[in-house]
Every structure is written in C-alpha cells, then in structure tokens.
Amino acid sequence: MAVAAALMSALYDRPLPERTVMFGEIGLSGEIRAVARMDARIKEAEKLGFFAAYLPPSKPFKGLTLSLKQVDSVAALAVALVGAQARKKVTASRHPEK
After folding, report:
1. What is the pLDDT of residue 18?
2. Which of 22, 58, 61, 90 is the most buried (most CB within 10 A)?
3. What distance in Å separates the CA atoms of residue 26 and residue 40, rounded to the nearest whole number?
4. How would you classify the pairing of strands 52-55 and 25-26?
5. How far apart are CA 28 and CA 42, in angstroms?
6. Which residues pair with 25 in a beta bridge?
7. Dihedral through CA 11, CA 87, CA 15, CA 91, nearest 10?
8. pTM of this prediction?
9. Is the pLDDT of residue 94 over 60?
C-alpha cells in the first residue's frame, strides 16, 4: 500500500502527509486487505513518532493518539491522499504510427 501511495504522489505531483505510516496488502481487484500483527504495527508506529496511519478496515484500536484512517480500496486511498480519483488518463503509444 505504501508503494501505491508513493506512485499516486508522483502521478498527481502532491506530497504525502508527513509523519504518516501506511500498511496493508493490495489485492488484484484493488481491495486493501489486512496484514499480520496490525495492532503491534500500529503501536510501534506510535512509539516511533508517527501521527497518522492509513490501514485496511479493522477492529477499533483503543488508547492510541495516532489518527487511524481506514481505506478499503486503492480508489479510496487516492481520494484520501490526493483528493482525486484513482484513475488518471494517460495517453501514450507504445508503437508510433507509421
């Protein structure tokens, strides 16, 4: 998910939020799935000084000062991060016309 966020940042020329951590697994249809030990990862991110976390939908976490932002798809991640739809029309031809 972090790599997808970095690609969106580059594509839309918008920086990602500072002190933000992202974790999740992207499925073939664009859904964002949970990863192992999410609670431990969130607690460690908070200890390391992160202010926000983007993660897949999950159970509520208690006692955190970290802002949790749940996203269920790559499209939702794009809207949350750059305020844009996940698809941007790119026109490029692999083979020039002869």
Report:
1. 93
2. 22
3. 20
4. unpaired
5. 25
6. 33
7. 20
8. 0.78
9. no
Q: What is the mean pLDDT of residues 66-72?
A: 92
Residue 12 phi/psi, 5-degree rounding, is -95, 0
The two structure tokens encoding residue 61: 């976490």
Q: Comparing C-alpha atoms, which of 85, 93, 77 is closest to residue 31?
A: 77
Query: Which residues have a Cβ under 8 Å from the Cβ of 85 and sit 6 or more positions away?
Result: 75, 78, 79
Question: CA-to-CA distance for 52 and 82, rounded, in angstroms?
Answer: 15
Count the residues in the chain: 98
Q: Is the dihedral of CA 21, 80, 55, 13 positive or negative?
A: negative
Mean pLDDT score of the chain: 86
CB atoms within 10 A of CB 47: 9
Given the structure tokens 């749940």, which residue do they identify?
Answer: 70
Residue 93 pLDDT > 60, yes or no?
no
